[in-house]
Amino acid sequence: MPKTAETVLEINLNHLEHNYRYLKGKLKPETKFLGVVKAFAYGSDSIKIAQKLEKLGVDYFAVAYVKEGVQLRNAGIKTPILVLHPQAINFTELIECCLEPSIYSPKILMEFLEVAKELRQKEYPVHIKFNTGLNRLGFWENDIDYIKKKLEGRDEIIVTSIFSHLAASEDLNEKDFTLKQISNFRKITQEFDEKINPKPFKHLLNTSGIINYSEAQFDMVRSGIGLYGFGNNVKIDAVLKPVASLNTIISQIHKIEPGETVGYNRAFTSEGYQITATLPLGHADGIGRQYGNGKTYVSVNGQKAPIIGNVCMDMIMIDVTNIDCQEGDEVVVFGGNPSAEEFASTSKTISYELLTSISQRVKRVFIES
Ligand SMILES: *Cc1c(COP(=O)(O)O)cnc(C)c1O
């Protein structure tokens, strides 16, 4: 492994493969696998991740917005791409790039039908999203007759799949609610199959759904965070391998006298003779101010060094008083110890937010053997 010489987000494609195989192993062999690569593949690099997953044989990709799908097509990705949250203004581009929209409301259905007709599409694949309790996007169960009516005599689109999304698949205290969502979705699939032809395929589970409710895998699952190494569960986190690791170096070491302060607004005051190290990353790189002032630690030569004072835009300062280190030494911000999940939890957020916050300014390096 090359020695870190600046701030880099290391992306381990072997770990991605490990996680993919682990999650696949939880499923029936015939269940399709959709890799969620929205938000730069959870802050890593959507093109490299999609290329690797395509080689591994995933059946589908999902992104949130049309723009993200266009980037994948421009990079040569051929696998079908579901766009989870498209807006009508982008429908022409979506069709030009062979992206497949989630149709989540009567309005978006009518808008898509219009564009598909204008562009003379025949049986363009779409995916209908049902709301089963998350109350975010989707048709209601009793909209099936409306959908049937709107599709009658129209051949511009074809419903390739229907799907829904679980609200609390990671939280076993909410098991009753999740089981109700699953049975609601099952009912929707049955009614849809009775009323609308040809029968679409069905999907419901995200990563924690795969782990906790694999009996509801239907025809496909949609996994994001699990591919990147987290399962919202300590036991699963121990088996999965983190894909992204944020590493940096010590730019400068300072010896601080008792009573001196460190950083903006003099937020940290030294109690004795202390040693601090300055690192070349800050809130503009995705390490927000909430991680400062002793809340969170990074790892220097295997030892915990708390972030002290306020996080700056391009720098953080850490306390290395009791750590044997020098300028140029490597620092693990997250990825090993602490893990992204541990780092995030110090400020009451989740690995999803920390990972997707790592800004495009941070250099990405790829590891694959
Ligand atoms: C983001 C997203 C997923 C992926 O969820 P994970 O918890 O990361 O596996 C699946 N389905 C939908 C609709 C999503 O928006």
Briefly summarize what is shown.
30% of the residues lie in helices and 23% in strands. The protein contains twelve helices and 19 strands.
Report the CATH C-level class of the largest domain: Alpha Beta
Whole-number average pLDDT?
97
As a percent range, the share of helical residues equals: 25-40%
The ligands bound in this entry are: pyridoxal-5'-phosphate
- Number of domain modules: 2
Query: What is the count of β-strands?
Result: 19
Strand content: 15-25%
Under CATH, the homologous superfamily of the largest domain reads Alanine racemase
Computed CA radius of gyration, to the nearest angstrom: 24 Å
* Biggest beta sheet attributes: 9 strands, mixed
Shape from CA axes?
elongated
Q: What is the CATH fold-level name of the largest domain?
A: TIM Barrel
Strand order of the largest sheet: 11-14-17-16-15-18-10-1-19
Structural class: alpha/beta
Low-confidence stretches: none
User: How many separate helices?
Assistant: 12
CATH architecture descriptor name of the largest domain: Alpha-Beta Barrel
Distance between the termini: 11 Å
Cofactor: pyridoxal 5'-phosphate
Pathway: Amino-acid biosynthesis; D-alanine biosynthesis; D-alanine from L-alanine: step 1/1
Modified residues (N6-(pyridoxal phosphate)lysine): 38
EC number: 5.1.1.1
What features would you describe in this structure?
- Catalyzes the interconversion of L-alanine and D-alanine. May also act on other amino acids.
- Residues 243-367 form the Alanine racemase C-terminal domain.
- Keywords: Isomerase, Pyridoxal phosphate.
- Pathway: Amino-acid biosynthesis; D-alanine biosynthesis; D-alanine from L-alanine: step 1/1.
- Belongs to the alanine racemase family.
- With 369 residues, the chain is α/β, with parallel strands linked by helices.
- It has 2 domains: 31-228, Alanine racemase (TIM Barrel, Alpha-Beta Barrel), CATH 3.20.20; 244-367, Lyase, Ornithine Decarboxylase, Chain A, domain 1 (Beta Barrel), CATH 2.40.37.
- It has 12 helices and 19 strands.
- It has helices at 13-24, 38-43, 46-56, 66-74, 91-96, 106-118, 144-151, 175-195, 207-212, 234-239, 340-345, 351-357; strands spanning 8-12, 32-36, 60-63, 81-83, 100-103, 124-129, 157-163, 201-203, 220-223, 244-249, 252-256, 261-262, 268-269, 274-279, 297-300, 303-308, 316-319, 330-334, 363-367.
- Strands 11-14-17-16-15-18-10-1-19 form a 9-stranded mixed sheet. An 8-stranded parallel sheet has the order 8-7-6-5-4-3-2-9.
- Strand 5, helix 6 and strand 6 form a beta-alpha-beta unit.
- Helix 1 crosses helix 3.
- The longest helix is centred in the middle third of the chain and has 21 residues, at 175-195.
- The termini are close together.
- The mean pLDDT is 97.
- Residues 36, 84, 165, 206-208, 222-226 line the site of pyridoxal-5'-phosphate (PLP).
